[in-house]
Amino acid sequence: MIIGxxxxxxxxxxxxxxxxxxxVRDEYVETFAIDADHNMDLSYNLGVEHPEAYVGQPKTxxxxxxxxxxxxxTEEVFRGDVCSHYLFRPLKDQLRxxxxxxxxxxxxxxxAGMDSVGAGIPALLDVAVVCVExxxxxxxxxxxxxxxxxxxxxxxxxxANKIQTPEQEQEIRRAFPxxxxxxxxxxxxxxxxxxxxxxxxxxx
Length: 204
Prior knowledge:
- The protein contains eight helices and eight strands; from the N terminus they run βαβαββααβαβαβαβα.
- It has helices spanning 13-24, 41-45, 75-79, 89-96, 115-118, 136-151, 166-175, 193-202, and strands at 2-7, 30-35, 59-60, 66-69, 104-109, 127-132, 155-163, 180-185.
- The chain has an eight-stranded mixed beta sheet with strand order 3-4-2-5-1-6-7-8, with helices on both faces.
- The chain starts with a strand and ends with a helix.
């Protein structure tokens, strides 16, 4: 099962990806994490000190998780020889050639906003998770991402992050009326991840 995580910067995308992996990994024979965000926060959360050593070369971490990086900028990018979308090539090769195996969990922490959607990554996923928080810009970007995912016919779940009041949850439900929504209360992220897992599996 291949799941991609999307959302505006600061929406809790990487935290959701990491917590999801940690909470449900025991239900799978193998787990594979791909950090495709240029900020490399998933790498940090997984204890990877030098993610550039994992670019295009999946390796097994001491935790038993297979890991690959697709985000660190290279000299070719800094010189202007290629754009940053070039960094997605090994990621796309990995996902394209991977047999669909329900006993393996693959999570991809994507770049913030529409960047990964425009790079064609959603077409290689089983399910997309779009993280939004109750803030106007997060809702706007989340809607843009969800609409982009709809164009690729990617099954999508919305995570309503950092919810403090029923009104905030309703605001997100009004913005995404056609989607399954999993609510994550502020300060209690662990409570929602098995619900997210159920929602994801129901779409496959």
